[in-house]
Write a structure and sequence with these properties.
With about 170 residues, this protein is mainly beta. It has one domain. It has one helix and ten strands, in the order ββαββββββββ. Strands 8-7-6-9-10 form a five-stranded antiparallel β-sheet, with helices on one face.
Length: about 170
């Protein structure tokens, strides 16, 4: 069993027999954002599951992605379930649509990841900064020599379209 890592008072561990997440986090330790790509249809997927959700084929390969994307949706967490996040409320949790597969395989589906929106020094972003349509990029928070956590931060890039925010 690998050594647990502490993040905001929580113990994080990926068991040795969890092949999907074990490889994903091994690549994240190298500061690479990798997703699985289907060898049959070519579509990428997250989370890293065995079968392709679109064509059901089992063949896959790891595919590095840029980590650049757009906030597709978000949630403002006002009541944290985990004690380590309590003093940070309200903060934003974002659904990021990565550039590499935006609007594919259909206009309503894409390659999307749920992640924290962070500021410099990995402080969680507040509700004043987040908006649908804003541009983001991946950053890797090194929690230990053997564990890095992919998170996202806002960029200075102009939004891809109209920006929308909760009032």
């Amino acid at each position: 069993m690998p050594q647990p890592v502490t993040y905001r008072g929580m113990s994080l561990v990926v068991p040795d027999n969890d092949s999907e997440w074990n490889e994903y986090f091994a690549l994240a330790r190298q500061h690479k954002l990798m997703v699985r790509a289907c060898t049959a249809c070519g579509l990428m997927r997250y989370p890293p599951t065995h079968a392709c959700p679109w064509c059901m084929e089992l063949g896959w390969r790891w595919q590095e992605v840029s980590g650049k994307g757009t906030i597709h949706s978000y949630e403002i967490v006002a009541h944290a379930i985990q004690p380590g996040f309590k003093e940070l409320t309200p903060y934003a949790s974002s659904l990021v649509e990565l550039d590499e597969q935006a609007g594919k395989p259909t206009p309503d589906e894409a390659l999307r990841l749920v992640a924290n929106l962070v500021k410099p020094r990995f402080l969680l972003g507040g509700r004043g900064e987040v908006a649908i349509g804003k541009r983001v990029r991946v950053v890797f928070q090194d929690l230990a020599d053997h564990f890095a956590l992919p998170q996202f931060t806002l960029t200075d890039e102009p939004p891809a379209g109209r920006v929308w925010r909760l009032a």
